[in-house]
Amino acid sequence: MATEFSIEEATVQDLQLAFQTNQLTSRQLVEFYLNQINIQNPVLKGVLEVNPDALAEADKADQERREKAPGSLSRLHGIPMLVKDNIATKDKLNTTAGSFALLGSVVPRDAGVVTKLREAGAIILGKATLSEWSNYRSNGAPSGWSARGGQGKNPYTLDDPCGSSSGSAISVAANLVTVSLGTETDGSILCPSGLNSVVGIKPTVGITSRAGVIPISPRQDTVGPICRTVSDAAYVLETIAGIDTFDEATIEASKYIPEGGYAQFLKKDGLIGKRIGVVKRYYSFRNDTFPDKTFKLHLKTLRQRGAVLVDNLKIDNIDEIISDPSEEIAMNFEFKLSLNAYLKDLVASPVRSLADVIAFNKKNPKLEELDKYGQDIMLQAEKTNGIGSIQKEALLNMTRWSENGFEKLIKTNELDAVVTPFSSFSSILAIGGYPGIIVPAGYEKGKPFGICFGGLKGSEPKLIEIAYSFEQATLIRKPPPLRNSEI
Asked: 12-324+395-474, which class in CATH?
């Protein structure tokens, strides 16, 4: 391998060029990442399991590259990926949501998004750690912790990595893998991506299949890329987007997928003419959690790059959305119904219902560290009994808030997107099934933070143009220090 090529921080495009010029093979790439996992993962705990067939998959990719015509393979061909451990893989890897309750369970098939990755020739390097049950087990459990994976750590600060797609963000940030997949119900891609200085895309619900994903809320769940650059995230998104007959939501949402994919929207001048709203609530800070001056500088950059900023906006029902328990009420009954359906569909499993999971946890407190964190969210969900008047009202509330709040804000002001610091906007995007993309925005005392752009359903093309143009104007991301000893 030529010494001038560095795998660290390499983009998908860099790697493909190295493949084509015989500077690198997929096997060498996988060996590099396996070595990095061996060195750093004991500290960072971003990777839960490594695929024992990863090197064989790499050899297969190298063979295909030798045999097939240049340009005939996909952008992700031969590229190693981690998938969050709530995304099913029909191979030697487990799919457990970080819980011992599902260890040894057998999934019927690959998740829809994994099928698309394999068809593209991507290499499944392994499973990323996560907040156990995607943060839907206990209010007491810290972000990034699971019984199987332990406590994931932010590679920059060795503290909170945010969740629930913590391992997916940690591993990409620390160069343990090229790109990864996360899932989001409310904040679970956007928050860890922002805190670990990487790019995360939370797609419109249904653009990517949730079939084979351990669920929380079919109304809000979505699968998306976590990568080091906007371009890599666009490549992954266009690979996994599309219809899957095992997820009906993908049929309706497919109308939003642009012909020709998402990479065509990687435009350096993508900010020109974009109308971007600034919601006052999200950058009038009364503490030091976000460097307000930096955010204002970024707003200036957006203007300089040709965007029209519409400032001092207010979402009419924002206080109601934040204080009302409707989202929690809805997710409780949705979690029980959808998890029971997922567990019943497994070929083999130690648990077949939410009630079984709760019973397993009670019987095995040492395995699940129940004495520490409990399972109050699960207990609350188990008490639900289908969809009654309270549940219907909660669903109607969220529809009304979305139509009279975020949608009204965008349409009245003729906006292409809204910009916020951090992932502070995630609940607004979550309850309406709207997309968002977060990009590295800086470091405050060494701690990374991101800037987030959100829009209406199907606005991914505009969001990618905006995010890519901002990223290219600022180029803020820097890799974390190498973590090779216990601290």
From this structure: alpha beta
